[in-house]
Specification:
The structure is a homodimer. Chain A is α+β, with helices and mostly antiparallel strands. The first copy, chain A, has two domains: 82 residues, Orthogonal Bundle (Arc Repressor Mutant, subunit A); 51 residues, 2-Layer Sandwich (Dna Ligase, domain 1). In chain A, 47% of the residues lie in helices and 20% in strands. In chain A, β1 and β2 form a beta hairpin. The termini of chain A are far apart. The interface between A and B is medium-sized, with 31 and 31 residues. β5 of chain A pairs antiparallel with β6 of chain B, so a sheet runs across the interface. Chain A binds a DNA duplex through α4.
Chain lengths: 141, 141
DNA sequence: ATTGTTATTGATAAAACTTGCAATAAGGAA
DNA sequence: TTCCTTATTGCAAGTTTTATCAATAACAAT
């Protein structure tokens, strides 16, 4: 079964529908790995779907996040960017140069454990963005 | 020395100026503890400073964050809210009801340690927002 | 295939946030 | 106090994001 067919069935099981807009946006995030802004995604998807509105892009991105098919992350500027859902991970962004590194979720496992104990909250493993100073920017200060 | 005078001197030392706009916004966040949206802050501050623009509120909030006098945090809707700088802490927000609890920074200390080791980044202790499900919403699902 | 239900889209307007620039005013120096 | 420098503000326009609602189209059932 293709990836697209699988996703379509996932949505239908939950009472939702697969549409060209959703398929195209998923395809874009799948092919171009990394983070993408709504504006970027809108530009790329418009090539396939002329007349696609920004409104729909924002709504589709929210929808795909809700359904676990893509993940949101904060960019250095504070705006949200999106990428295809992969293994659970997080980011540290450099306050100074905007560069970033990926953090495996396993590193947060223990903390999440403690957070659950202390707060009573069930920690769903959503993306977290930390801020810091990268090595280069540390030494150039 | 009053709190205001102290803050004024802090800014001057760094080549910045204390203004009625900055003082008023600091006062508001100081008096009304908790998180406040830019719109909320603008509404309150406008009582003291008629003609205050939203632009200035956004710029002032950014400025005060940069200078460590207030802290930003993500609200349940994903927008930024602000509070007067206090001891270092973080939040867990419930995805379902939007409620939140505070997390002491000490709980993250060990993780930050590890993050620095793994990434080489210097972890500045900025506010982190986690998402989860509170006890009430867990049982009502 | 055709039909009916309703999830989804596009259009429009509004709200939230940012940028560039000229006018203003904070505060150091005379 | 007065003057000068320039950080800061307000204004106006632009960008980004959200909300509302009627028209459309996905897809389950016939």
């Amino acid at each position: 079964m293709t990836c697209t067919m699988h996703r379509t069935q996932e949505l239908r099981k939950r009472g939702f529908r697969m549409t060209p807009q959703r398929q195209t946006i998923l395809q874009i995030l799948h092919d171009a790995s990394g983070h993408h802004s709504p504006a970027d995604i809108h530009a790329r998807a418009s090539l396939n779907i002329p007349g696609l509105t920004e409104t729909t892009v924002y709504r589709t991105l929210d929808f795909l996040v809700q359904n676990g098919m893509i993940n949101p992350a904060q960019s250095a500027s504070g705006h949200l960017v999106y990428e295809i859902a992969r293994h659970n991970h997080h980011h540290i962004i450099c306050r100074s140069c905007g560069g970033s590194v990926e953090i495996e979720h396993t590193l947060l496992q223990e903390l999440y454990q403690q957070l659950e104990t202390h707060s009573g909250y069930l920690m769903t493993a959503s993306h977290v963005t930390f801020f810091g100073l990268c090595q280069v920017c540390q030494s150039s200060t």
